[in-house]
Amino acid sequence: MPGTVLLLAAAPAGKGRLVDAASVLPVLAAVPPAVLAGTDTANVVELADPLEPQAVLTRLRAAAAAPGPLTVFLTGQLQLDRRQRLVHLALARTTASTVRYTALPWHWIRDELRLRAPGSTSLVLDLHADADTWELLRTEPLDCGGSSAVHGRIAPPPRRRTVAVPSYMKAVATILRSGRRPELGQLHQQAWARVGSEGYADLVLGSLGGPAPDPHSVLAEAVRAGRHGDADALAAHHERGALRAHGPGSPEALHWAEVRADLAMFAGDAVRSCRAWLQVASARLAAGQSAADPDVESAVDRAHHQWGRIGDPARARELGLALAELRTRVPGRRQGALDDVQRQLQRLGS
């Protein structure tokens, strides 16, 4: 039975574009359809920077209704409808204020594919998230439905005034151009190895029959199961390995320090999370990053947020003094952040 392949690359056309999604399509289109599908023959549907959500839904619905295996290669950016708190796939006309009307709700994709027979659908994803969506995904995993095999990555927002490259999907396409399609789990592992250190901050997606899960998946499962101690122990193991292999201040070591800060937040340990984010910010500054660097600002902002959740006055005073010192160097973009810390310290008697 022939397979069906949907190649979908979508991103806003204006300054809101986070990733040059369509740049991967020529590489994917050069792969023989049968290799893309993993079947003897295949039909390929290509959508490059589509304009209308309904038009994408129509193509998706037709692909989902086709008999035989379906493989969806999806590259693009995720944006959040701030009013309804729903994740969308941004399209060419999408702006921050028009997400609800010009982007494709993610649950439309999930619902169309959920109707297919289990085991007949594969998703290969290379997605970049805007800041709001990235915050949401730290606590609520992207729901792709329970019947599709999912592999890929979700990357955080790139630096300001930077358009990211879909490096994971380009690695997938390059491997497939050899003319042989490995089992999807193996393909994912090979592509991820090519992405290398660029992907250390990404959320790694992998499910249903792949090899032993890239450690982020294991951490996510442990957090969902309430095994916060196990999750932190695993992250600490990887942090020590990154420190030995790459040294303090390296992107690899900083990534795992940030993971542990988030794990502490998930565990409800505001003291540990605040302290970890303060250490991350200090390490980034010591490594030569600017106080205006978004990664530095984000670390201090997260430390500030967790500090406000500390109930123990003694711990709050201790960490508040360190936060105030950092805020003098990294004021951030929120007006009055340093004043807020100083007022709270006065109330605590410092």
Characterization of this structure:
With 350 residues, this protein is α/β, with parallel strands linked by helices. The protein starts with a strand and ends with a helix. It folds into two domains: 3-211, Rossmann fold (3-Layer(aba) Sandwich); 222-347, Tetratricopeptide repeat domain (Serine Threonine Protein Phosphatase 5, Tetratricopeptide repeat, Alpha Horseshoe), CATH 1.25.40. Strands 1, 2, 3, 4, 5, 6, 7 and 8 form an eight-stranded mixed sheet that branches. A hairpin with a 4-residue loop joins strand 3 (70-81) and strand 4. The chain has helices at 25-29, 33-37, 53-65, 99-102, 106-114, 131-137, 167-176, 184-195, 216-224, 228-246, 251-266, 270-286, 294-307, 313-329, 337-347; strands at residues 3-10, 42-48, 70-81, 86-89, 104-105, 121-129, 149-155, 203-206.
